[in-house]
Amino acid sequence: MDTAQASAVSSKTVTFRIWRQDDPNKPGHFDEFKVPYTKGANVISCLMEIQRNPVTVEGKKVAPVVWDAACLEEVCGSCAMNINGRVRMACSALVDKLQQPITLEPMKKFPVVRDLTVDRDRMFESLKRVKGWIPVDGTYNLGPGPRQSQKDQSVMYVLSTCITCGSCLEACPQVTLDNDFIGAAPISQARLFNMHPTGKLNAEERTRALMGPGGIQDCGKAQNCVKVCPKEIPLTTSIAVMNREVSKLMIKDIFFKEEEQKASSGPG
Ligand code: SF4
Ligand code: FES
What we know:
The protein has 268 residues and is of the alpha+beta class. It is built from nine helices and seven strands, in the order H-E-E-H-E-E-E-E-E-H-H-H-H-H-H-H. It has helices at 3-10, 43-52, 121-129, 150-159, 167-170, 184-195, 203-209, 224-228, 235-265, and strands at residues 13-20, 29-36, 80-83, 86-89, 102-105, 112-114, 117-118. Strands 2-1-5-3-4 form a five-stranded mixed sheet, with helices on one face. Helix 4 (150-159) packs antiparallel against helix 6 (184-195) and helix 6 crosses helix 9. The chain binds iron/sulfur cluster (SF4) and FE2/S2 (inorganic) cluster. Iron/sulfur cluster is lined by residues 162-168, 184-185, 188, 229-231, 233, 235. InterPro entries: 2Fe-2S_ferredoxin-like_sf, 4Fe4S_Fe-S-bd, 4Fe4S_Fe_S_CS, Beta-grasp_dom_sf, Helical_ferredxn, SDH/FRD_Iron-Sulfur, Succ_DH/fum_Rdtase_Fe-S, Succ_DH/fum_Rdtase_N.
């Protein structure tokens, strides 16, 4: 590369429009920044560059932008945000593939904490609701666990890759800031733990947790969740599977209620 080419490359910049909001109750606004272009850069590395020098295109020094990130390899799920209007992981969003100016906004289905950071508690509370875990019976050696078929293992492995990023809730038209629809990820986790040989012991509890208000019946089948999941988890299949389980449980409840009524009314 000759000197002229090198200086052309180094003078190339990337423009970002970033949502700024000091706290959840204050109105927000956009700040525009330019960062030097680096081939192969991702959105997080550009945010780090802006953090080192938080000066807007108007030359105004502002507070550094706040965002969440930890693993930088699509594992922790903390960097989900709206990038050019579509929810995605900022650590795997490559600048070369995005149209400029690159607009960064926080997810809108979760309360904003500051700038691009949101409070994803809603998801963790939903995982508690469906008991998204396998109960451990003590810490002593129980010997080898029950065998699982390879077919089950291959289904469960994909479900277990959920990183609780919240993208599926963000893209879902049924999820709003002021309702309590549980969303696709916890439904899929209920399916995962219900398939586990030990998790099966709590399967009915998990399925019942999907029956109440804000449960699976609020799904409007928009299928946006499956389009945005960074792990390509078959969320619509999980919803269909759990819908069937909920229906079976409802029929069982009706049957037992009828039996109880017959028994209490006696033989004559
Ligand atoms: S199911 Fe996919 S989109 Fe939803 S939280 Fe898990 S990884 Fe994110
Ligand atoms: S930083 Fe962990 S998923 Fe992006």
